[in-house]
Amino acid sequence: MKVLKERIIKDGKIREGNVLKVDAFLNHQLDIELFEQMGEEFKRRFEGKKITKILTIEASGIAIACIAARYFKVPVVFAKKTQTKNIAGDVYTSKVESFTHGKVYDIIVSKEFLRPEDHVLIIDDFLANGKALLGLTKLVQDAGATVVGAGIAIEKGFQDGGKLIRESGIQLESLAIIDAMSVEEGITFRK
Ligand code: 5GP
After folding, report:
1. For residue 73, is pLDDT > 70?
2. In angstroms, what CA-CA distances link 173 with 41, 106, 125, 127, 185?
3. Which pLDDT score is estimated for 88?
4. H or E, element range at 16
5. Which among 28, 122, 127, 172 has the fewest CB atoms less than 10 Å away?
6. 80 near 136, Cβ under 8 Å?
7. Quick check: 62 and 56 in contact, CB under 8 A?
8. Residue 101: pLDDT band by 50, 70, 90 thresholds?
9. Cβ of 130 less than 6 Å from ligand 1
């Protein structure tokens, strides 16, 4: 998606450890007009697919998912991150290793909001090693619901997540795929 790639070039900051900071428009200050264009593009890419719910993960996925939901006209559910040791009761849980912090945490979704009849589109801001996406996928599968696909704003294509998810047969749509990035050479996008 041209407008997103241009924005990454303009405002993205490359940090140590293969981290791209996009606080100016995606992760701290939010460019809602850009989010609307992204929502429209997700809708186009999943046109004709039955989707009853969008699932994302707190915190950064929520805003993108909410704007996208205006185009799909479905509710958004976000998985909550928790460090509670003994999670029991009416929730689905999964473990996710954080790319940016390296810690493992549990994510939970109430069973009330993911039903077997749901057709779920998963949305997130970044795809790196795929842990968040796989954790979210597990929640959907545990609910007996269907994963329709995954919509990602920025995929770092030089990390393993994209390959992993595509090989698992999930329709993965990333609006910008970065094939290489370094402070010296800048950012190279996949064509
Ligand atoms: P994964 O689980 O695919 O390894 O990492 C994806 C998650 O880590 C996303 O939810 C995102 O919040 C965070 N993340 C991974 N890489 C980056 C990055 O380069 N920049 C930012 N801002 N977040 C990232």
Report:
1. yes
2. 10, 25, 12, 11, 26
3. 66
4. none
5. 28
6. no
7. yes
8. confident
9. yes
Neighbours of 2 (CB within 10 A): 10
Tokens 């997103």, located at residue: 4
Distance (Å, rounded) from C-alpha 174 to C-alpha 167?
15
169 — alpha (psi -120 to 50), left (phi > 0) or beta? left
> What is the spatial distance between Cα 109 and Cα 133, in angstroms, rounded to a whole number?
14
Run of H or E including 70: helix 60-72
Domains and CATH numbers, the chain: 2-189 (3.40.50.2020)
Q: How far is the CA of 21 from the centre of ligand 1 (A)?
A: 10
Q: Look at residue 87 and tell me whether its pLDDT is greater than 80.
A: no
Ligand 1 centre from 38 Cα, in Å?
18
Mean pLDDT of 161-173: 97
What is the structure's pLDDT at 100? 85
